[in-house]
Description:
Elements (H helix, E strand, L loop, with lengths): L3 E9 L4 H13 L4 E6 L3 E3 L10 E10 L3 H14 L15 E7 L4 E3 L2 E3 L8 H10 L11 H6 L7 E3 L6
Antiparallel strand pairs: 1-4, 1-5, 2-4, 3-4, 3-8, 6-7
Amino acid sequence: MNSHTVFLGAGSNRGDRLDYLQRACTLLEALPDTAVTATSPVYLSEPVGVTDQNMFYNAVIRLRTALKPQELLSHTQAIETALGRAEKRQRWGPRVIDLDILLYDQLHIEIDGLTIPHPEMHNRKFVLLPLVDLANPRHPVLQQNAEALLKTCPDSSSIEQTSHSLQ
């Protein structure tokens, strides 16, 4: 089995946010040829875009998987649907779960519906802080590691680490 290292961003701001993140983690662990190898602490962060909504719980999940990027995307979207995420939704609006592929090894992919690395990750503290808790991977396009990206991140929103973890 060819195994790949993947970092996923996970967020929730509706219902029992921690439970949705934990359930997503459990469903990711059940994917074929996939293992959750680490999870970051959970962070509480302000919403981006549409600000009149609940605060988010955010975390980063590291996987080892043999799934190809498009297969993994299909599975993460199925997990979002299984947990109750509406198919039609407001961009940046409230959601029970959001799973984004941040990094997949050092691949740079731009195909219909999938861009890796995630095109906004370097602009989001709620992605970079939990990512740095797990590792300091290099961004394959910007050619900087996550710690350097965090130092220059333009995001000035409020974010704080909670006492919660996912595993």
